[in-house]
């Protein structure tokens, strides 16, 4: 009798999980037909020249992270979650990118950044250089430098910008402007003597010197710009936040001095000052809001530090002043850090904030002249499963116990990482801990101090002019080439002449007739 009651209760609970509208087959048929009509409209390709380019990079945002972030976004809106749409989900074209580095099956963020920014695959740990450079070997760098799409856009007269939640000298942003045999050479204080003697320059110095006319740079990383032991403006009594430069240079002052006469440059370190700027009177903007990486969105001080969305809003409004258009790199960089620490809640909230920034950028630009691409550099060994029912809290428990150790487990798990915990010789009982806490480290199969990247392909979402060029399974280094083609920048511009553009054979007779009539 008890068993029968339990079965009936389970069936009732299961039935209540299904929204009433979804029980009607017509709901699904109509939804599918709407999707079909949208797909048919895509047959009319947007072949405009992309005046503007925006590349959104979710560091570590593999497909499992995208799906979990979608559910989280819906649940934050008090919905079940699975049926929700991320802003990137609304992009009509989706591809997969193969993320391996030239010397690594499972890649790192530096070699991948070189691929999707410079169009060339590279060795792990190196930025802005070809695979002819060996990590840590300064003397292999000369002549192996490769330029990025940010440089191509700048050379074409466009405005350019970088926005990140990491330090601005981190792997992703640094590949846009720097050339380094080691991604960790943030300042000369992190470089070995042989690299300094060999003439290699640290990444912070390259930020100021290589492309001095980058219009917008927003993120973290103040300490790499100041002399060693110089106190931080926000945390003057904390030694870990002091300056790191051995050359005693103040790179903020060097940044100011590198600007052309008559141009207005502004450096800010506080959210209040950023949002108070009259952008119509600012030509160059540098904002460094933390000594190192910016704080996780869940922990952010919203009085002193801007959100990613706020930084993107400022960046786009700054860059839109250029009539030739712009290129903007936006990195949600701390998705990766949350996963490395096994803190899935931090990682997923970072992903939701990146998606919020994507939505804002969509509203501030036009699909007719702005190509937007969303992708990741690599994945993580992050997963969620356990036959969870519809609407199960994404950070909640699976609806079952292990049939081996008879203990509950969370839906979210990692293949490896710091969440591996043995208590009294057995797997930790998660019901005894606060697994919904922002800093809870989800259980992992293998103990590691830092969880690792995953090696599977990542998604590429595209919308705007020539977005259909991102359509299948691609090498990751293809991405900037497709974006450059769409914008008529870089080396491949033969198609940009009116006579050779797609559709020109139709337009030319019309233009000839118009000329005769005039």
From TrEMBL:
<dbReference type="GO" id="GO:0004035">
    <property type="term" value="F:alkaline phosphatase activity"/>
</dbReference>
<keyword id="KW-0597">Phosphoprotein</keyword>
<feature type="binding site">
    <location>
        <position position="172"/>
    </location>
    <ligand>
        <name>Mg(2+)</name>
    </ligand>
</feature>
<feature type="binding site">
    <location>
        <position position="331"/>
    </location>
    <ligand>
        <name>Mg(2+)</name>
    </ligand>
</feature>
<dbReference type="GO" id="GO:0005886">
    <property type="term" value="C:plasma membrane"/>
</dbReference>
<feature type="binding site">
    <location>
        <position position="336"/>
    </location>
    <ligand>
        <name>Zn(2+)</name>
    </ligand>
</feature>
<feature type="binding site">
    <location>
        <position position="453"/>
    </location>
    <ligand>
        <name>Zn(2+)</name>
    </ligand>
</feature>
<feature type="binding site">
    <location>
        <position position="170"/>
    </location>
    <ligand>
        <name>Mg(2+)</name>
    </ligand>
</feature>
<keyword id="KW-0732">Signal</keyword>
<feature type="active site" description="Phosphoserine intermediate">
    <location>
        <position position="109"/>
    </location>
</feature>
<feature type="binding site">
    <location>
        <position position="59"/>
    </location>
    <ligand>
        <name>Mg(2+)</name>
    </ligand>
</feature>
<keyword id="KW-0106">Calcium</keyword>
<dbReference type="InterPro" id="IPR017850">
    <property type="entry name" value="Alkaline_phosphatase_core_sf"/>
</dbReference>
<dbReference type="Pfam" id="PF00245">
    <property type="entry name" value="Alk_phosphatase"/>
</dbReference>
<keyword id="KW-0472">Membrane</keyword>
<keyword id="KW-0479">Metal-binding</keyword>
<dbReference type="InterPro" id="IPR018299">
    <property type="entry name" value="Alkaline_phosphatase_AS"/>
</dbReference>
<keyword id="KW-0325">Glycoprotein</keyword>
<keyword id="KW-0091">Biomineralization</keyword>
<keyword id="KW-0336">GPI-anchor</keyword>
<protein>
    <recommendedName>
        <fullName>Alkaline phosphatase</fullName>
        <ecNumber>3.1.3.1</ecNumber>
    </recommendedName>
</protein>
<keyword id="KW-1003">Cell membrane</keyword>
<dbReference type="GO" id="GO:0031214">
    <property type="term" value="P:biomineral tissue development"/>
</dbReference>
<feature type="signal peptide">
    <location>
        <begin position="1"/>
        <end position="15"/>
    </location>
</feature>
<feature type="binding site">
    <location>
        <position position="378"/>
    </location>
    <ligand>
        <name>Zn(2+)</name>
    </ligand>
</feature>
<keyword id="KW-0862">Zinc</keyword>
<keyword id="KW-0460">Magnesium</keyword>
<dbReference type="GO" id="GO:0098552">
    <property type="term" value="C:side of membrane"/>
</dbReference>
<dbReference type="InterPro" id="IPR001952">
    <property type="entry name" value="Alkaline_phosphatase"/>
</dbReference>
<keyword id="KW-0449">Lipoprotein</keyword>
<dbReference type="GO" id="GO:0046872">
    <property type="term" value="F:metal ion binding"/>
</dbReference>
<comment type="subunit">
    <text>Homodimer.</text>
</comment>
<comment type="similarity">
    <text>Belongs to the alkaline phosphatase family.</text>
</comment>
<feature type="binding site">
    <location>
        <position position="59"/>
    </location>
    <ligand>
        <name>Zn(2+)</name>
    </ligand>
</feature>
<keyword id="KW-0378">Hydrolase</keyword>
<feature type="binding site">
    <location>
        <position position="340"/>
    </location>
    <ligand>
        <name>Zn(2+)</name>
    </ligand>
</feature>
<feature type="binding site">
    <location>
        <position position="377"/>
    </location>
    <ligand>
        <name>Zn(2+)</name>
    </ligand>
</feature>
<keyword id="KW-1015">Disulfide bond</keyword>
